[in-house]
Amino acid sequence: MEDIQPKTGKYALNFGLLLGGAYVLFALMLFSMEMHYEQSFAIQGVNIALAAVAIALGIVQFKKANQGYLKISEALKIGAGTALVAGIIGLVYFFLLSNVIEPDFMDKMYEIGKQKALVDNPKLTEEQIDKSIAMQKDFAWITYPIMLLMQIIIGLVIGLITGLIAKKQKPDY
Predict the structure, then answer these.
(1) What is the pTM of this model?
(2) Please, which residues have CB within 8 angstroms of residue 10's CB and are 6 or more apart in sequence?
(3) DSSP states of 121-134 as a string?
(4) In this structure, are residues 159 and 70 in contact, taking their beta carbons and an 8 Å threshold?
(5) pLDDT tens for the chain, residues 1 to 173
(6) Contact by Cβ (8 Å): 59, 159
(7) Sequence ranges of the domains in the chain
(8) DSSP annotation of 139
(9) Nearest to residue 144, comparing CAs of 108, 96, 95?
């Protein structure tokens, strides 16, 4: 009788949904505290910590279901898959935030960026910064695939680290 091998996709989907939900809850918390414009290291750190916990839990659960065995390739699949699912959920939330919940979100972000640029680069004129912002607005659509790609890369790195720690090859009989 042959053992049924668990599927990495199932674990990636389940823990990706869990991570995506955690991202949305954290983002809603920031929104309720009016901190959703901040891009501090602490906020990014919390998001990475959430990803690390969800991906590591997914890999550990997969290993348990696989009789204690884990290949690095399986850990990478779970890490990337979890990040992909969570990233899509995060992008849907971001789309809703910037188009439905707070339609002027991007304009406020550009204004915050303009003020920061004026402080950081006193040699630039306001007109130069406005031209730069206008160009950014033309290419704003590219932020979605870049955000998703960065999420997947983070998932691969976390999956690789967790996989290297938890790997255990099946013995060859």
Answers:
(1) 0.87
(2) none
(3) -TTS-HHHHHHHHH
(4) no
(5) 456 889 999 999 999 999 999 999 999 999 999 888 888 899 999 999 999 999 999 999 999 999 999 999 999 999 999 999 999 999 999 999 988 998 898 888 888 887 888 788 878 778 888 888 888 888 878 888 999 999 999 999 999 999 999 999 888 76
(6) yes
(7) 8-102+144-166
(8) T
(9) 95
